[in-house]
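REVIEWER CHECKLIST
Item 1: Sequence provided? yes
Item 2: Single chain? yes
Item 3: Sequence as submitted:
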Amino acid sequence: MTSWFLATVIAALGPLSDVERGMAAYGAGNFDAARAAFTAALDEPGVAPGPILYNIGNCAYRQGRHAEAVLFYRRALLRMPRDGEVAFNLRRTEAHLGVEGPSDPSLLAMALGAVDALTPGESIALVGILQALGFFALLIWRRRRGVRVLMGAVVLLALLIGGRLVYRQWYAPPSGVVLEEEITLRAEPHASHPATVALRAGEVVTVEESSDRWMRVVHPRGAGWTRRVGVGVVD
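Item 4: Structure as written out by the authors:
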């Protein structure tokens, strides 16, 4: 009787969406089913991919697939650059893998990081505001040299932010995450060439070039070719 009643209620509520199925499976501790449902949800029209990618990262972490979790957290952060929860889980997972970011980033790196934390829409709005402010102030106080210099700097800052946005959207090479326990970089895309650098799971690289089987990546410790299956692209 109880089973019939529950089935009737579920039927009345209608079929669950992939996101709802994923949340239900995750809450029940069935992380394989949850990940499959969240992955299917990425194809649903109108679904924001950022939170879904974050949920897939959580599933991967619970499955013990920590390098894959790093990949999906970074994909989520690409779409939600100021989400503190995603950033926290990313740092925690990288620490679990023994991967650390730069301990003392330069002022330039911090400035670029602040700009990159803006969404494209926010960057465009900020550029417009800074340019309008600069040109408006130049028209009103054009006889004051100090104001001209300051507002000229504001306009230049707007142009730099706009240039950074254009580079990030259309010209910046994608980053990648090492998925296998260890990969080796080689001077040429052939297994017969000696390995020059070894990278471990969770480390981040810049992807310069790729083919069906090989990928050329750059890391602070070196550059070279590695098997494509060993690196997940942050896209």
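Item 5: Key structural point noted by reviewer: Residues 216 and 225 are 4 Å apart (CA to CA).
Item 6: Recommendation: ____
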